[in-house]
Write a structure and sequence with these properties.
Number of domains of chain B: 1
Structural class of chain B: alpha+beta
Number of helices of chain B: 3
Number of strands of chain A: 5
CATH class of chain A: Alpha Beta
Strand content of chain A: 5-15%
CATH architecture of chain A: 3-Layer(aba) Sandwich
Number of helices of chain A: 5
Radius of gyration of chain B: 20 Å
Distance between the termini of chain B: 63 Å
Helix content of chain A: 25-40%
Shape of chain B: elongated
Largest interface: A-B, 48 and 49 residues
Shape of chain A: globular
CATH architecture of chain B: 2-Layer Sandwich
Distance between the termini of chain A: 28 Å
Radius of gyration of chain A: 16 Å
Number of domains of chain A: 1
CATH class of chain B: Alpha Beta
CATH topology of chain A: Rossmann fold
Order of helices and strands of chain A: HEHEEHEEHH
Oligomer: heterodimer
């Protein structure tokens, strides 16, 4: 199933509602703090149709934080397997994306090593706004525009030469 | 609240678009750095790659390979080379393609 099919299926089958299960694979818990803020009145995740669920069996989306320590890999895999399809895995934060911790005997270093990741949310930690945007990208409600960001100075004469 | 409830009942839509309005705190969020190729020499690029604590920067020939996904926006590169590194202001960086987060920044040749 391609990501496009998955997105279409989610739009059709889930309508406007999506249930999120968070999974901490050894993060410092700041990502969790930001995720918790999503449910606070200021960001109010529920107004966008997202809900947190305590059980992977009820979840459509797995929000994974942390560098995927090896001791947790089996539990992460079981959580993923317990989720009903179609399902989305979102890697959240710099640790989950391969930064901060290199691969070593204690950690896989990135979520990709264990789970098939569909959406990557950078940030250390990603702010609640970035997380909301990431959830929007995950269900295809918001466009993916990262490829167009050059990360060089605006109006730079060499900009066209460098950005791939 | 009441208005929102009645509108929801009438239209059958109880969710809002994102963002409903621009967020006031967005301007003060820590954001990953952007680079100015004008001030980025090989020497500076190597120094930035050496001090990056999360391995987000690496020089490959005449490009600085910048993995935004690994960046923790700690600001060490901006403190080290304020002429070459500026604040990008970008924080909505979620993507469905990991390789879209890896940017190639041109590095200036030293002689010029």
């Amino acid at each position: 199933m391609t990501p496009e099919d998955l997105r279409e299926t989610i739009a059709r089958q889930f309508g406007r509602s999506l249930h999120v299960r968070t999974l901490d694979t050894g993060s410092c818990a700041v990502c969790e703090q930001e995720i918790r803020l999503l449910a606070a009145p200021h960001y109010d995740l529920n107004r966008l149709g997202f809900f947190f669920t305590p059980a992977p069996r009820h979840a459509d989306l797995l929000l994974v934080t942390g560098p995927m320590i090896r001791a947790f890999a089996v539990a992460a895999r079981k959580s993923y397997d317990a989720m009903p399809g179609p399902k989305i895995v979102v890697a959240t934060g710099a640790c989950a994306l391969g930064g901060v911790y290199p691969e070593d005997p204690f950690t896989h270093g990135a979520v990709d090593a264990v789970l098939p990741v569909d959406v990557w949310i950078p940030g250390c930690p990603p702010s609640p706004l970035a997380l909301l945007h990431g959830l929007g990208v995950a269900v295809g409600r918001l466009a993916d525009k990262v490829r167009d960001l050059p990360f060089t100075e605006a109006n730079d004469p060499e900009r066209s030469r460098g950005a791939s | 609240m009441t208005l929102w409830f009645i509108r929801g009942l009438r239209r059958g839509v109880v969710t809002t678009r994102y963002p409903a309005r621009p967020d006031a705190s967005a301007a003060s969020l820590p954001t990953p750095p952007a680079f100015r190729p004008q001030g980025l020499t090989r020497q500076i690029a190597d120094r930035l790659a050496a001090i990056c604590p999360s391995g987000a920067l690496r020089r490959d020939g005449s490009v600085l390979v910048y993995d935004v996904g690994r960046c923790t926006a700690c600001g060490r590169c901006a403190a080290q080379a304020p002429d070459a590194v500026i604040r990008s202001g970008e924080f909505e960086l979620a993507t469905t393609d990991r390789s879209a987060l890896i940017k190639n920044i041109p590095v200036r040749e030293e002689a010029r």
